[in-house]
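so my prof wants the structure for this chain in the tokens format not the other one, which i didnt know existed until like an hour ago. anyway here's the sequence
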Amino acid sequence: MISLLKKIHSFFRTQHIEIEGTWHGLYWYNESDSELLNSKRIGFNAQISNTSGTNNFVGIIKESKDGVPENAAISGSIKGMMIQFSKKYQNYYEVDHLGNRTIYEGTQFIFYAGKYNNSKNEYTGSWKTSTVYKYANGEKNIEDTLGHWKMSRSSF
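here's what i got, hopefully its the right format
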């Protein structure tokens, strides 16, 4: 019995998840002061390619009409059941508590981390982006925006 449990544990620990191809997902914000942002789920499609037979990958994410209007480049890696990647926009997008979007010049990065769930055949995890506010008096304030995400090969 112990031998069987070791084999099962070993299988799940070393299982390879094929990331190449099309994935469909959703992301949403952590609880915020805005009921609008709390209830909003943004859909996305990711087209992902492996990088030369490694655990690294690159790709493009296109969000639904409720999301960011430009495509984002992604790059990341997989280790066992864990995934991490960054999403890069050419512009910086900010959404206020009323849902109004402001676009600023400058690159924006959002960092994702997650784990593959065998029973649901999907990745789930959290994301984070940091905004640095610089004031006229020289002071800086860093504000983190956090949320969750999931993606699978089938649509939600």
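also thought this was worth mentioning. The chain has two helices and eight strands.
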